[in-house]
Specification:
With about 300 residues, this protein is mainly alpha-helical. Helices cover about 65% and strands about 0% of the residues. The protein has 13 helices and 2 strands. Strands 1-2 form a two-stranded antiparallel ribbon. The N terminus is likely disordered.
Length: about 300
């Protein structure tokens, strides 16, 4: 009769005090992150640190002798009427452009997400301004706002010639033209982002709201908006920073801060002081203050749009 042998395994001894120790991992993750950390330190933290250093220097030009100025540049900035005029222009620009852009983009993005007839073509049309270079945009709006441009010709054609105006040559309307360009440039791009985010919402939510008698307006503001509140906060933050830091290109190409200083904002002031007047210390001191404004604004926006749960 054959005998069957049964193998027995001896259980591993339980760890002392019932504590299970996790296996020690090799530091591969840290090693793989070193190139990214070096890149970030050199190309991100390095330039930001250089702004703070240059703001403490007396540097009247790229090839000029450099000296230490301490806080003199900050005193010059804070006592300069042009800086405060530029800050006011930037504040007006942000207060008008960002809310109009975000509200209009959300409404347009919601409309696209409902997939009306031809919505794919509409997506391409609204995204087109993001594909046009800054110089091309400036030429388009120069042709619109010039004294003999499209807007004045249209006004004359419909019998409103008395409303014709030198739009970018008047102190009362020049900066308004810059704000209009900011809104036109950003609203389509942001609407495309909203449409993509709203497409990810389950259809059952809209169907339930429709059964309850909610129309498109109520579904848009009382259902869709709360569900993507965190994403709206991200887009508000991005457009806030974009408008604050990069609007100098439109000012440079169309008005160069004029007439007078009526269209000079903070980002253009930083450019003008550095590259036109060769006052690098003043420029970077203003840049540090601009950086502080952007940081505070970003934190405020993040807190306002933080989810309550």
């Amino acid at each position: 009769m054959a005998t069957t042998t049964m193998s027995t395994t001896t259980p591993a001894p339980a760890p002392a005090h019932g504590v299970v120790r996790a296996p020690r991992r090799a530091p591969r993750t840290t090693v793989m992150a070193v190139p990214a950390l070096l890149w970030y330190a050199v190309f991100m933290i390095g330039p930001i640190g250089a702004i703070f250093v240059i703001s403490l220097l007396r540097w009247p030009g790229m090839l000029a002798e450099v000296g230490f100025a301490g806080l003199d540049n900050y005193r010059a900035v804070l006592t300069d009427a042009l800086f405060w005029d530029s800050a006011l222009n930037s504040a007006v620009q942000l207060v008008i452009a960002v809310p109009v852009m975000i509200v209009g983009a959300f409404m347009l993005g919601y409309f696209i997400s409902t997939r009306p007839r031809g919505y794919r073509v509409l997506k391409v049309i609204v995204f087109t301004p993001a594909l046009i270079s800054a110089s091309a945009k400036a030429m388009i709006f120069w042709g619109m706002f010039a004294p003999n441009g499209m807007i004045n010709k249209l006004l004359a054609g419909i019998g409103l010639g008395s409303l014709q105006h030198a739009w970018i040559a008047d102190t009362s309307t020049a900066f308004g033209c810059i704000i209009a360009i900011d809104i036109w440039s950003g609203i389509g791009y942001t609407a495309t982002l909203y449409a993509a985010r709203l497409d990810a919402l389950p259809d059952s939510v809209y169907e339930a709201a429709e059964l309850d008698g909610a129309g498109h307006w109520r579904r848009m503001w009382q259902i869709a908006l709360p569900m993507v509140r965190d994403y709206v906060g991200v887009t508000v933050m991005l457009q806030f920073l974009w408008t604050l830091f990069t609007s100098a290109q439109n000012v440079l190409l169309l008005t160069q801060g004029g007439p007078g200083n009526s269209s000079t904002n903070l980002s253009f002031l930083v450019y003008q002081k550095a590259f036109v007047q060769s006052d690098l210390g003043y420029s970077q001191a203003a840049g540090v203050l601009l950086f502080a404004v952007g940081l505070v604004g970003m934190l405020v926006i993040r807190r306002v749009f933080r989810q309550p749960y």
